[in-house]
Design brief:
10 helices; 5-stranded mixed β-sheet; alpha/beta; about 45% helix
Length: about 300
């Protein structure tokens, strides 16, 4: 079904008459009738009930036309946005990264980069952590990732970003929130939440704490669920610093352990654009300035 056919269907729905619709569309009535039959054959249901008095929408046709009007409106908006975009930019760089990292670091990086690179835009794609599949399909030019997730993948270039420390997350009212660093013994008599999808470095720390202190623990499906459980006084959790959204809702206190999570940026091995590598270097500089993410 094409846009012209959408216009045909909506005009008949408006005029309720094939002849009048054909006149308004500057086409012949037989040609219009043929196009509507093609559409009905394609969608698999009657859109109009024909009679000597004209044409009325079937119940299915009524619903269908409502959707078509929305599609036409969205298409109009998309064209307007595209025209606006093309007038300002001639090249786009797409970066895939987890939401939490983007919220704090990305706005500054985009602002600085686009000011220095006229006509080049940066588009964020918010991706599940540990899933490089869309990047490998070429849907992103740059990917934020943990090194462990991509180190066996060929045809990519790895750019070191930072080593993310392990932090203890607590409520800000928790007495542990006042400490500069958390030692293992500080977690005695606490309940530790173990998040789903934890990187191997974090799992090592979690297991060491559980086995050494023999404290209770329970699994949490994801980081969002873990934070909800922290807020409802069910326990505390350990997490890498790059998950910090900097909303200041929780206390993030460095945990005393040697393990860190290596965070990197990936580009495609055949990437030749200078602008892509300029943006990578800018991100590296911005992350380096944040000492709380570094050893």
């Amino acid at each position: 079904m094409n846009t012209k056919q959408i216009d045909y269907v909506l005009e008949i729905a408006k005029t309720k008459n094939f002849n009048r619709a054909a006149e308004n569309l500057f086409t012949s009535q037989p040609a219009l009738t043929y196009q509507i039959k093609l559409v009905e054959d394609e969608v698999g249901f009657l859109i109009f009930e024909r009679s000597a008095k004209g044409a009325v929408l079937t119940p299915a046709g009524e619903q269908f036309c409502t959707t078509l009007r929305n599609i036409k409106l969205e298409l109009k908006r998309a064209i307007e946005q595209g025209q606006n975009f093309s007038s300002r930019y001639h090249t786009n760089i797409s970066i895939g990264l987890p939401m939490r990292s983007a919220l704090y670091f990305l706005p500054k990086a985009i602002t600085v980069f686009e000011a220095e690179h006229e006509g080049i835009s940066v588009t964020p794609h918010f991706l599940p952590l540990s899933d490089p599949s869309s990047f490998l399909k070429g849907e992103e030019d740059i990917l934020f990732s943990m090194e462990v997730d991509v180190k066996r993948i060929h045809d990519i270039k790895i750019h070191k970003l930072f080593e993310s420390r392990i932090y203890l997350i607590t409520e800000k009212s928790d007495c542990l929130a006042q400490k500069k660093i958390i030692k293992m013994n500080d977690l005695k008599n606490r309940t530790l939440m173990v998040g789903g999808g934890s990187p191997p470095e974090l799992r090592t720390v979690q297991q060491r704490v559980i086995e050494t202190l023999n404290i209770p623990y329970f699994n949490s499906n994801d980081h969002e669920t873990t934070l909800t459980n922290v807020a409802t006084h069910k326990g505390v959790c350990l997490a890498p610093g790059f998950l910090n959204d900097h909303y200041d809702e929780f206390a993030w206190i460095p945990f005393d352990c040697p393990e860190t999570v290596n965070c990197i940026l990936c580009t495609h091995a055949n990437e030749q654009r200078k602008s892509v590598y300029d943006f990578v270097r800018l991100l590296q500089k911005i992350y380096k300035e944040r000492s709380d993410f570094l050893l």
